[in-house]
Amino acid sequence: MNLLQLFSALEINERDSLIKLTDIDWKTKVAFPSRVIRLLEDTEKWSPKAIFCFDNKPLILFFENPENIEDLHKAIWNFNESPIAIVSENDIITVYNGFAIDENTKLLKQLGGDDVLNDLNYFELVTGKTFEKYNKDFNYRGRVDNKLLENIEESRKELCNKYSCTPQTANSLLGKIIFIRYLIDRKVKLNFEGKSKQWTNQEFCNLLVDKNRVFNFFEYLHDKEKGFNGNLFPIDKTNFNAIPNDAFRLIKRLLEGDEIRTGQKSLFQLYDFSILPIEFISNVYEKFIGKENQANSGAYYTPTFLVDYIISETVAKKIKSNGNISCKVLDPACGSGIFLVESLRKIIEKYIVLHGIADDKQAFKEVIKRLAQENIFGIDKDESAIQVAIFSIYLTLLDYQKPAEIENFKFPTLLDTNFFVADFFDINANYNKELEKQNFDFILGNPPWAGAKKGLDSVGKNYIKQRQKDERKLKKAFEIGINNNEIAEGFVLRASDFCKSNTQTAFIIRSSILYNLGYSEESPFRPYWLQDFFIDRVFELAPVRHEVFDRSNDPAIAPAVIVFYRYANGENTDKNIVEHITLKPSRFFSIFKIFTVNRSDYKRVEQNKLKQYDWLWKTLVYGSYLDFNFLKRVKEEFPLNIKSKINNKECFISSTGLHSRSMPLEKPKDTSLISDIPLLETSSVEPFFIDYSKIDILEVNKIDIVKDVRIYQAPMLLI
């Protein structure tokens, strides 16, 4: 069947989020991130005829009689946005998994043909039944980019452990290699050794056997006259000479497609580096910082869908409503620069809408460089992070140019002008004078998450102490403070030093900062924040904690919340209205990170109420404002808590359960009264149901606490 017949069979049409890319105005019907639109417009790589969208996510790509099926498959998995691709070829329908490769055919894995179309009709799609059935097929671990990242990570380990490269040198070397492969795959001419030509991957692999030529090649890339200029992954002569020859042979194996750990062929050659999604670069950065450094610093990979949401609520709204393309953005913990890249895309594309791309290509190059230099700023303590962030900005600038125009492009100098390797709490660092001159529209980011000993260091603690001292003369209602040495709380407050009257801040922080009861008694952070800042929106992700950071090195990290707020500059914040939105679990979010918010999960609360009732924060996550009113009345009419009411009644029992150790004990507790009862681990208790397939065995020799055994005796009403 052809595509029109297919659309009819699937019962989808243009009223049901079917977007035909042959329509001139198709872009006005979607709100995709800029990077997605640019890839869909790239007719040199592919030509999708239509897409089926759900909540601005391109779930299905449709193709008809493609010219080169191998190139098409490569383009689809490099697009890495759509789980399903349907191809009509000579009226024969084939349904492919858009994320996974059949390693035998080196093509996308087939989900089926006409036989699976019933699973893809409109009703099955929008109710999530399609994705419930094929959930395992879309797991990200089988994707090409994930396989590639694993191979890059293995290469980094060998460079450091086997060839004694410093982490910084290994990072710079791999960063340069990725950039060179990008230039090769984009077919950019390189004027090395007096010859301007397009290089092949194999030619560069052959060059890697000559260490002197490799150094000269790297120097050429940085040359102000012949190369690209810029600050791209520098390696000085001394550090370069310390790299053993065998390390370059390792890089050669990586580029030629060897799987470094096993020696088998990898998917490296199948990846198109001319399409380097920012998510891939963010993942590369995560591999660069390593699991140990990540745990120590509290720095975590920021999922792209959260970045897209924050950008859509901040930069995108300002750019859309404003004829002025200026939009100054600071990320004080920029990592790989993902917030800044997406901000720069919005700015450049607004310029193109207003002014177009002039025939004078050199003039356009200067404009986009100026837009980056005037609007994009980042800080990070980790030098590798700053290098990756600058790399990300450079690639973004190249993305708006054709290969022939890139050859003579000169990168702007961004290090120590726009990007700074520094501590955000160091008030004496050079960046302070530069950034204080800027009138930032937005301060965005995902600050580190760490408390106690791994939280604020001496620089951060000194900043808080100095601010306390400075503000005492102002006689504020609350003194600035940090609970449990939480570094994210420090970022929330420090950002105000760079806020003007119009600056909005949006940070991803640990949910417990808002909801742990007792914070207001132990530390003035929440009262101070509520008193001195307008809280515009709280986007709560705690109920989907397991899905939010499922691709991080540490998926067990704490639940997150996005806070949108502004510095009040002394204004009264009592009457400010706080929007509180709670994201609940759904199939679409679990698999594709599509936000679906029910009306009951959206609340508007006067800020003064949060000042008066600290426990209201937690009520809003799982309850409603009616629950708040009910609990408030209970607290007022029954001042004693439930536990104190029931302790002297035999029909009520108040107790916690048993506790076990990881190792056998010399003197375990007596469990004779409960050892025959089936054990359900806490992991078996899911929202709204219990998974009885997870019944376990009670290891009596590890039990060190047994409370009131009556709680295990039926019948029992559990509250």
Explain what this protein looks like in three dimensions.
With 719 residues, the chain is α/β, with parallel strands linked by helices. Helix content is 40%, strand content 15%. It contains 30 helices and 23 strands. The strands form 6 sheets. Strands 11-10-9-12-13-15-14-16-17 form a 9-stranded mixed sheet, sandwiched between helices. It has a 6-stranded mixed sheet with strand order 1-2-3-4-5-6. Helix 6 crosses helix 12 (278-297). It is globular and about 90 Å long. The mean pLDDT is 85.
- Low-confidence runs: none
Tell me the strand order in the biggest sheet. 11-10-9-12-13-15-14-16-17
Q: What composes the largest sheet?
A: 9 strands, mixed
- The percentage helix is 25-40%
Brief account:
The chain has 719 residues and is of the alpha/beta class.
List the helices and strands and how they pair.
Layout: H1 3-10, E1 18-20, H2 34-41, E2 50-54, E3 57-64, H3 69-79, E4 84-89, E5 92-102, E6 107-112, H4 122-126, H5 129-133, H6 144-161, H7 167-185, E7 189-192, E8 195-198, H8 201-207, H9 211-222, H10 237-241, H11 245-256, H12 278-297, H13 304-313, H14 315-321, E9 329-331, H15 338-355, H16 361-375, E10 376-380, H17 383-399, H18 403-406, E11 419-421, H19 431-436, E12 442-445, H20 458-472, H21 487-494, E13 504-510, H22 512-515, H23 519-522, H24 525-532, E14 533-540, H25 545-548, E15 560-567, E16 577-582, H26 587-592, E17 602-606, H27 607-612, H28 616-622, H29 625-637, H30 642-646, E18 659-660, E19 679-680, E20 685-686, E21 689-690, E22 695-696, E23 703-705
